[in-house]
């Protein structure tokens, strides 16, 4: 049984240390990241000793947690401009704390009625926001990779309903741009189709699907005797932050009777911003959409939605039997829609952020991050040596500085802990890549980054 006094003391230490950590991070006090070698870090944290001997007390835990936090990557830091991972808002953190204590695996309704009901309502809101309304279906999964896999399972069930029992037909293919997230190819391999079943679509110079060439791509596949299981579009592309023309693609897919899957993991949150929702015009034409909350909805990882225009399509994705789970009325169970059975109460993270900020507050946050990235583009294009291949549409910006080894420039900035940014290829050329995730990032940060890159 829990020692309630010890729990309260340890929880208090957690709040104190996390509060100091986030406050320091938001004000840019420590380095944005440290890169201590794993063996050295394990020794500093005393991991082997704690594992062998145990005996941690609330006070020892406080010191351990302080060291643990100090060695991590500070996503709340203004200089965090790296991967598409949210600087979580505190209500979502509270949800993780609650789930950690109660541990209700709510894919089975009887195991977590409150968590399941919250997820239902969050999904109803997301379905309405995407434009699927009352006819759609949804489920939350632990991450976008599982979400893409689940959506493509629904597409497979639609095209080849016997695949679950008889195996995957050898004539199925996916059509996707080369910029599609790696989880699309991974899903094809997991589904038994193989990586070679993902056929690349024609794209423009920035990696966006060429809508005019899409009918020809569908015809090519059919002439080869292949059935197109789905066309995958990006909203937005992970590398560039640019959106595909969803309306144009959706209209072509509708005319040809082909399933359209939209990977909106990062960019679907722009639906909440009045100034940016036009970027997703036509998303309601999709048959399936994924939307990650742990990117622009400010939740901690992981929480990703799988949304289908027709609820029956999602219900057809899995066909499983287990006498200890599937019996009686399954109307409120979500286990039939997910890979996971022991599924965390993911909806609470999204709900509490919305309960604090509301739709408008969330939309304002998205708009602010997109605007900050656009500001970086404005500041950078006026500096000699910087080259930007496009005007950013989101909070993701790709650019180059001179003829230097861009990856080496990134390593220098990472080594001294001054900035955390990534890189990506655009048109086969390596670029530096900034993703504005932290609310604390401002003009001062952006100017400092541009100066630092030139120096490096």
TrEMBL record:
Q: Which residues carry this modification: N6-(pyridoxal phosphate)lysine?
A: 295
Which cofactors is this protein said to need?
pyridoxal 5'-phosphate
Q: Does the keyword Lyase apply?
A: yes
Listed Pfam families: Pyridoxal_deC (PF00282)
**SUPFAM superfamilies per UniProt:** PLP-dependent transferases
MF terms per GO, please? Answer: aromatic-L-amino-acid decarboxylase activity; pyridoxal phosphate binding
Q: Which domain of life is it from?
A: Bacteria
Q: Which UniProt keywords apply?
A: Decarboxylase, Lyase, Pyridoxal phosphate
Q: Which GO terms describe its cellular component?
A: cytoplasm
Which Gene3D superfamilies does this UniProt record tie to the protein?
A: 3.90.1150.170, Type I PLP-dependent aspartate aminotransferase-like (Major domain)
The reply on keyword Repeat is no
**Which biological processes are named by the entry's GO terms?**
amino acid metabolic process; carboxylic acid metabolic process
Family designation: Belongs to the group II decarboxylase family.
Q: Return the protein name.
A: L-2,4-diaminobutyrate decarboxylase
* Higher taxonomy: Bacteria, Bacillati, Actinomycetota, Actinomycetes, Streptosporangiales
């Amino acid at each position: 049984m829990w020692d309630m006094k010890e729990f309260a003391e340890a929880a208090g230490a957690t709040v104190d240390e996390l509060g100091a950590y986030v406050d320091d991070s938001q004000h840019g006090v420590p380095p944005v990241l440290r890169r201590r070698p794993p063996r050295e870090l394990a020794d500093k944290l005393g991991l082997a000793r704690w594992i062998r001997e145990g005996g941690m007390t609330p006070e020892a835990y406080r010191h351990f947690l302080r060291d643990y936090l100090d060695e991590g990557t500070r996503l709340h830091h203004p200089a965090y401009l790296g991967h598409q991972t949210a600087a979580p808002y505190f209500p979502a953190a509270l949800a993780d704390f609650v789930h950690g204590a109660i541990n209700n695996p709510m894919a089975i309704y009887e195991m977590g009625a409150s968590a399941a009901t919250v997820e239902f309502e969050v999904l109803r809101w997301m379905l309405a926001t995407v434009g699927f309304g009352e006819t759609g279906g949804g489920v939350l999964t632990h991450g976008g990779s599982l979400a893409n896999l689940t959506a493509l399972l629904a597409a497979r069930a639609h095209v080849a309903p016997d695949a679950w029992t008889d195996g995957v037909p050898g004539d199925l293919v996916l059509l996707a741009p080369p910029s599609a997230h790696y989880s699309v190819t991974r899903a094809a391999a997991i589904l038994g189709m193989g990586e070679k079943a993902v056929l690349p679509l024609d794209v423009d110079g920035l990696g966006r699907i060429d809508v005019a060439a899409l009918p020809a791509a569908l015809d090519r596949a059919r002439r080869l005797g292949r059935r197109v299981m789905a066309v995958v579009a990006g909203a937005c592309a992970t590398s560039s932050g640019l959106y595909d023309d969803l309306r144009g693609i959706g209209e072509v897919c509708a005319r040809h009777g082909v399933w359209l899957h939209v990977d909106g993991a990062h960019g679907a949150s722009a639906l909440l911003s009045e100034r940016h929702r036009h970027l997703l015009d036509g998303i309601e034409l999709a048959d399936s959409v994924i939307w990650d909350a742990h990117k622009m909805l400010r939740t901690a990882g992981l929480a990703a939605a799988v949304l289908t225009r027709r609820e029956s399509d999602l219900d057809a994705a899995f066909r499983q039997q287990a006498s200890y789970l599937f019996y009686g009325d399954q109307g409120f169970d979500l286990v039939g829609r997910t890979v996971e059975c022991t599924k965390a109460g993911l909806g609470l993270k999204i709900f509490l952020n919305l309960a604090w900020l509301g739709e408008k507050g969330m939309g304002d946050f998205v708009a602010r991050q997109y605007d900050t990235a656009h500001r970086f583009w404005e500041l950078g294009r006026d500096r000699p040596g910087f080259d930007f291949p496009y005007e950013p549409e989101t909070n993701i910006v790709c650019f180059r500085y001179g003829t230097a080894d861009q990856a080496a420039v990134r390593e220098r900035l990472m080594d001294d802990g001054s900035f955390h940014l990534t890189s990506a290829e655009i048109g086969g050329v390596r670029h530096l890549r900034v993703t504005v995730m932290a609310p604390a990032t401002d003009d001062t940060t952006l100017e400092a980054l541009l100066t630092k890159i030139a120096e490096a």
